[in-house]
Design goal:
Elements lengths: L2 E5 L2 E6 L1 H9 L8 E4 L10 E2 H7 L12 H8 L1 H4 L7 H6 L1 H19 L4 H23 L6 H21 L18 H30 L6 H25 L7 H10 L3 H22 L4 H22 L3 H24 L1 H8 L1
Antiparallel strand pairs: 1-2, 1-3, 3-4
Helix pairs in contact: 6-7, 7-10, 8-9, 8-10, 9-10, 9-12, 9-13, 10-12, 12-13, 12-14, 13-14
């Protein structure tokens, strides 16, 4: 019986069993390659592995070695193993993937060696995770209007706002609703405190870079663009807050809990901050595109993220409510943002 060998969808052959055995022994055909007999009709073609055909015919084949270990290494050659091109600057300049891969993979190690411990080391790692998140957001949500320069501007503008308003001036403390966030108060009081104290304050601050952007832009920005920049603004707030928590509240935790919370403060929590701000960015875009409905749309841009933020903060303080309410709420927030983006056309039809 003769067979065709199929590799990557291409047929080779036909070969009889003797030829097939020789090819396997020479390493030209692999035992995992697929076979089809010549007699099989095209429309009823059945594939079997080479090893199965050999075993069915009681044929045992061992692939020949191409010489000793050293001779095989010499054949591969040191030029392939250690290419001279890596010593040349042009190689690194022409293939940006090399630089990106090296930077993403090695930055934490470089920071560990060269950045002094303390606030600066925390901030460097926060920037590292920000770049990782930016890469992910860029893949998932990027629109043709998005550019890296504006993304960087939004990011550091948001962090400057937080530094001035929170750290330098302490302006959020003027919001008396903050006093109701005490864990000893009834949950209703905490809801009020976290929604009107924390939620509205922080979500309004995260909106400021987006407001600046829509005021200065010279062309209409589509919803996906404002969603992306909202993600960047929320991310900037989240990682800055994460650094503050790592140096204060997280220091009070024991080893394992502290480790997990430090990771969460640079990953999941900045992510959910980004999602809330992106929801706000969605409505800001429509407020600009359809100014006749701007009052309602600007209100929604602040109210929806602030309420979601406040509910989350209220529920995440207790173990059970964190698991059964806060965590599902985060999933709901992600789904809500995706729903808004998928239905942006419906919003446009309604607001025209």
């Amino acid at each position: 019986m003769e067979y065709y060998v199929y590799r990557n969808g291409n047929p080779f052959g036909p070969y009889n069993l003797s030829d097939l055995t020789s090819l396997v022994k020479a390493g030209k055909v692999l035992k995992c390659d697929k076979l089809s007999s010549v007699s099989t009709a095209t429309e009823d073609k059945e594939f079997v592995a080479v090893r199965d055909v050999l075993e069915d015919n009681n044929i045992s084949v061992k692939v020949d070695n191409a010489g000793s270990l050293m001779s095989q290494l010499r054949h591969i050659s040191k030029d392939l193993l250690f290419p001279k091109e890596l010593k040349e600057k042009e190689t690194w300049k022409s293939d940006t993937r090399l630089l990106v891969l090296a930077c993403i993979g090695l930055f934490p190690l470089v920071a560990a060696y060269f950045v002094p411990s303390g606030w600066l080391s925390y901030y460097c790692i926060a920037l590292y995770f920000s770049v990782v998140w930016w890469s992910f957001f860029n893949y998932m949500f990027k629109s043709p209007q998005v550019n890296a320069k504006t993304s960087v501007t939004i990011f550091f503008l948001m962090q400057a706002i937080v530094f001035v308003a929170w750290d330098a001036l302490g302006l959020p403390n003027l919001n008396f609703f903050y006093g109701a966030t005490n864990q000893d108060y009834p949950m209703l009081f905490q809801f009020i405190g976290f929604i009107f104290g924390v939620g509205f304050t922080e979500e309004f601050a995260k909106m400021l870079p987006l407001i600046w952007l829509v005021k200065k832009t010279k062309k209409p920005l589509v919803p996906q663009t404002l969603v992306f920049y909202g993600l960047i603004s929320g991310l900037a707030f989240g990682v800055y807050e994460g650094v503050q928590y790592q140096m204060t509240e997280n220091m009070k935790l024991d080893g394992s809990e502290r480790f997990l919370m430090n990771i969460a403060r640079l990953t999941s929590l900045p992510f959910i901050h980004a999602i809330w701000c992106a929801i706000g960015g969605f409505f800001i875009s429509f407020a600009v595109l359809y100014p006749r409905y701007r009052k309602a749309l600007w209100a929604l841009a602040l109210i929806i993220p602030a309420v979601l933020h406040g509910i989350y903060d209220t529920m995440c303080g207790n173990g059970l409510t964190a698991i059964f309410v806060a965590l599902p709420l985060c999933v709901f927030c992600v789904g809500l943002l995706v729903h808004y983006l998928k239905n942006s056309g419906n919003y446009q039809n309604r607001l025209r």
